[in-house]
């Protein structure tokens, strides 16, 4: 079965998405997400200029060989742009293979290991009352796990905290700037979790995202302060370039650690996993080289008691979500899946079989991934430049987020 066409579709049904659609001479098609928030056109160009020309005429059934060809063959390995492009090809080829076999992809990955994929939703509030209301809303909707983010007294606007129905941090063509105080944050967050536990008791899984903003010792302090509230994880406590930093956090706290939404390859987390410095790895399909490579990461993680906790923000398209769910339902060491519903416009552009019910997502049983792109509808939403914000300390120093 030969690849005869590969189209790169950039569309903006409320936010930008990049999708690769591969077409074979047998009429089977497959889709892959290639969206890199705020850098969409870089991946689109990489695909169009460097990947599509070498796909035409290739055997669509050779998923592993194509992955190796694009990874090793490029010479310039790794990096978010390259790996998102490889992910899109890999995902689309798994979609095609599933359709060829008449099986959902999770059946080709070993079949179901669970009945449904436990997801967590985002409960955000400008203040504690807002947080409590948001948690209550999620519990009413059946969520068993909630990520809790709060505004910080004295800071105007905190990343990830928004009252908008649909989460969208990439809001302006030129990055907006916000002001950050680690001291104010560290003082406030434990008080928020104290109130949440007091109100909702021990049953619900609680999570928190520190957005890479702390140093290891600050993260250790946060982890210790949160121990009484038994979080399921603190996410991205420190920027992860320095993997040794996690050792210091580990020495001080039993609060579990999740990291990896910006990871591209197994090499970004190999040390963290082997040394058991983390508990959850948050890599996902689009940013970690597709189903083929993410499976490798999760298999390494399984050997070291590390579970999956894949990224699932709205800047990952429904194509990525559909692919992630195929893995989530099959792997032995699944932990949690992030789930933020897309807008109605996005869902219409990407019709899919996965569905939410009572705290779980279900991938469905359609052959392949169970997702497609409506190219005609997509063409009605042209690309609109949008960048993620930047973060500065109160004295103006640029800070991580
Ligand atoms: O594009 C960046 C967002 O996806 C990210 O900031 C969201 O941190 C995030 C999360 O945990 O969903
Ligand atoms: Mg995050």
UniProtKB/TrEMBL annotation:
GO terms for biological process: amino acid catabolic process; carbohydrate catabolic process. It comes from Pseudonocardia kunmingensis. Coiled coil: none annotated. It comes from the Bacteria. Pfam families: MR_MLE_C, MR_MLE_N. Gene3D superfamilies: Enolase-like C-terminal domain (3.20.20.120), Enolase-like, N-terminal domain (3.30.390.10). SUPFAM superfamilies: Enolase C-terminal domain-like (SSF51604), Enolase N-terminal domain-like (SSF54826). InterPro entries: D-mannonate_dehydratase-like, DgoD-like, Enolase-like_C_sf, Enolase-like_N, Enolase_C-like, Mandel_Rmase/mucon_lact_enz_CS, Mandelate_racemase_C, Mandelate_racemase_N_dom. Residues 128-256 form the Mandelate racemase/muconate lactonizing enzyme C-terminal domain. This is D-mannonate dehydratase. Transmembrane segments: none annotated. GO terms for molecular function: magnesium ion binding; mannonate dehydratase activity.
């Amino acid at each position: 079965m030969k690849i005869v066409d590969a189209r790169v579709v950039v569309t903006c049904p409320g936010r930008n998405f990049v999708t690769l659609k591969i077409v074979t001479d047998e009429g089977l098609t497959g889709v892959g997400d290639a969206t890199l928030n705020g850098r969409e056109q870089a991946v689109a160009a990489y695909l169009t200029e460097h990947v599509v020309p070498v796909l035409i005429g290739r055997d669509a059934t050779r998923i592993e060989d194509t992955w190796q060809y694009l990874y090793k063959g490029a010479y310039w390995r790794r990096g978010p742009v390259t790996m998102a492009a490889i992910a899109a090809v890999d995902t689309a080829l798994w979609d095609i293979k599933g359709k060829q076999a008449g099986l959902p992809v999770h059946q080709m990955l070993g079949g179901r290991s669970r009945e449904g994929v436990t997801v967590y939703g985002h409960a955000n509030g400008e203040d504690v009352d807002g947080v409590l209301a948001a948690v209550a809303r999620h519990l009413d909707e059946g969520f068993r796990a909630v990520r809790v983010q709060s505004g910080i007294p004295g800071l105007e606007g905190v990343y990830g905290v928004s009252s908008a129905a649909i989460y969208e941090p990439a809001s302006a063509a030129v990055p907006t700037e916000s002001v950050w105080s680690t001291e104010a944050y560290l003082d406030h967050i434990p008080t928020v979790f104290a109130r949440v536990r007091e109100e909702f008791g021990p049953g619900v899984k609680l999570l928190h995202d520190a957005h890479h903003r702390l140093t290891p010792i600050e993260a250790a302090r946060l982890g210790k302060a949160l121990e009484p509230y038994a979080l399921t994880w603190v996410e991205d406590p420190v920027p992860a370039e320095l993997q040794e930093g996690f050792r210091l956090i580990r020495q001080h706290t039993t609060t579990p650690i999740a990291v990896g939404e910006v990871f591209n390859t197994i090499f970004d987390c190999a040390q963290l996993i082997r040394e058991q410095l983390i508990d959850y790895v948050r890599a996902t399909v689009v940013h970690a080289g597709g189903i083929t490579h993410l499976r490798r990461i999760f298999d390494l993680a399984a050997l070291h008691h590390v579970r999956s906790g894949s990224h699932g923000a709205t800047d990952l398209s429904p194509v990525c979500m559909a692919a992630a769910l195929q893995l989530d339902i099959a792997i032995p060491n699944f932990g949690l899946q992030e789930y933020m519903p897309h807008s109605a416009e996005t869902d219409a552009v990407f019709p899919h079989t996965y569905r939410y019910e009572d705290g779980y997502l279900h991938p469905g049983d359609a052959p392949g991934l169970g997702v497609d792109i409506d190219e005609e509808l997509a063409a009605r939403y042209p690309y609109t430049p949008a960048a993620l914000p930047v973060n500065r300390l109160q004295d103006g120093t640029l800070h991580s987020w």
